[in-house]
């Protein structure tokens, strides 16, 4: 089984920007942690990041043929990208939306996700653990989690 973890704009700057909001952990550390968790469940984790909306859409289209599901942090695109929303709606595989910060406790414009209605669920506000929780939720949805 292969799971795509897709990171949106500015997430390549994790650990450097707004550390009071996003923490000091960088994207490589998040990806490595997810890959270790994937190994525990004997699944392949593929991680990709882009600051470009069109590239994220292309990654989603490709994932539909190559992955069993997607963990997606659309970052700022969460709040207005109808193009990403439509790309997710066209998929036949499940998508979990994740956010490091609690988007509902921040600026009012961040409290709306146009992505969430076309995903199986959203996890936000648990720091880097949001990704691990998202992966576990996706695997549970796919009936893949084994008794621990």
TrEMBL record:
Keywords: Amino-acid biosynthesis, Aromatic amino acid biosynthesis, Lyase. The active site is at 22 (proton acceptor), 99 (proton donor). Catalyzes a trans-dehydration via an enolate intermediate. The lineage of its organism: Bacteria, Bacillati, Bacillota, Clostridia, Natranaerobiales. Substrate binds at residues 73, 79, 86, 100-101, 110. One of its GO terms (biological process) is quinate catabolic process. It holds the Pfam family DHquinase_II. Belongs to the type-II 3-dehydroquinase family. Its EC number is 4.2.1.10. Pathway: Metabolic intermediate biosynthesis; chorismate biosynthesis; chorismate from D-erythrose 4-phosphate and phosphoenolpyruvate: step 3/7. GO terms for molecular function: 3-dehydroquinate dehydratase activity. It comes from the Bacteria. It catalyses: 3-dehydroquinate = 3-dehydroshikimate + H2O. This is 3-dehydroquinate dehydratase. The keyword Methyltransferase does not apply. Homododecamer. It is an enzyme of class 4 (lyase). The record marks 17 as: Transition state stabilizer.
């Amino acid at each position: 089984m292969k799971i795509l973890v897709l990171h949106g704009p500015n997430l390549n700057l994790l650990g450097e920007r707004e550390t009071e909001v996003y923490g000091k952990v960088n994207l490589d550390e998040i990806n490595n942690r997810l890959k270790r968790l994937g190994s525990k469940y004997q699944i392949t984790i593929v991680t990709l990041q882009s600051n470009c909306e069109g590239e994220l859409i292309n990654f989603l289209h490709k994932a539909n043929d190559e992955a069993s599901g997607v963990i997606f942090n659309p970052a700022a695109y969460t709040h207005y990208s109808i193009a990403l929303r439509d790309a997710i709606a066209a998929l036949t595989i499940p998508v979990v939306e994740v956010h490091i910060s609690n988007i509902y406790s921040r600026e009012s414009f961040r409290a709306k996700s146009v992505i969430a209605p076309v995903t199986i669920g959203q996890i936000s506000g648990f720091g880097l653990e949001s990704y691990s929780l998202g992966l576990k939720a996706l695997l549970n949805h796919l009936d893949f989690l084994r008794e621990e």
